[in-house]
């Protein structure tokens, strides 16, 4: 599978790389090691010592450099060899480094042309900024491709059937649905009127249990697979401004063609004090149940049916709620194809129409 490379992906949550710790993770089918330098700034290198191809994540941080656990070679944040226990540092042995930025409670990585790595291109997940919000964070390793994750979040009609006792109700499919495209951003907006939600979900949404509610679930997709859900509810007939809208992040980074890193979060303003911190802990735990016990088995079974292929080449059906997913994948595939043509001029010339 060809991945989009000139774009920002989430490599890990900020708390996953503590001072002095090493995190080895496969991203876009490449082994990467992440750590913090002496100043606490995140660093990402190829997890491959050029000497004997040992994983650098098996090593340790010494005097600010990453020492290979096999023969002790040390590399700085740029991947240059700065320590050789057997003689002068080697100028020929260098490890690939990747641009990284710490933002929105996450470490973002750019695995394409380093010169094009503009931090301004990181999508806005400001509701995850730890200075202003309590952020409850979760992670699941999914044995399914990220295209299936795009479809899963952009078409939330499935919550009626896959999550009937947690996130859904038997009225979701009767709601209003709209797909909107704003440049390279896709919105999938669903509103359900007069919905009777289960007791626990009602309490979470700020509506008295058993009371009919108008619930909105608006999903924003940005490339390649970074989604925010803005969901809220009010007693039926009341204006939305009277409700409490709670944002959640759903950030997907390919591990390989058939597996994905799923980073999810929910946040509450720090102005809420201890209660906001409690809600962040409790609500991310609430979300983890349907994600791990309902979404995960379904997505992994779908991937098993796809086999080694991706969704792009599969023959699939169509329902109205599929519009946003189809638009998002079209935008993504066009960007992937354009990037591939730029990387392969000979191939691009062969594909160009005759004059």
From TrEMBL:
Residues 8-109 form the Rieske domain. Keywords: 2Fe-2S, Iron, Iron-sulfur, Metal-binding, Oxidoreductase. InterPro entries: Cholesterol_7-desaturase, Rieske_2Fe-2S, Rieske_2Fe-2S_sf, VanA_C_cat. The keyword Protein biosynthesis does not apply. SUPFAM superfamilies: Bet v1-like, ISP domain. GO terms for molecular function: 2 iron, 2 sulfur cluster binding; metal ion binding; oxidoreductase activity. Gene3D superfamilies: Naphthalene 1,2-dioxygenase Alpha Subunit, Chain A, domain 1, Rieske [2Fe-2S] iron-sulphur domain. PANTHER family: 3-KETOSTEROID-9-ALPHA-MONOOXYGENASE, OXYGENASE COMPONENT, IRON-SULFUR DOMAIN CONTAINING PROTEIN. This is Rieske domain-containing protein.
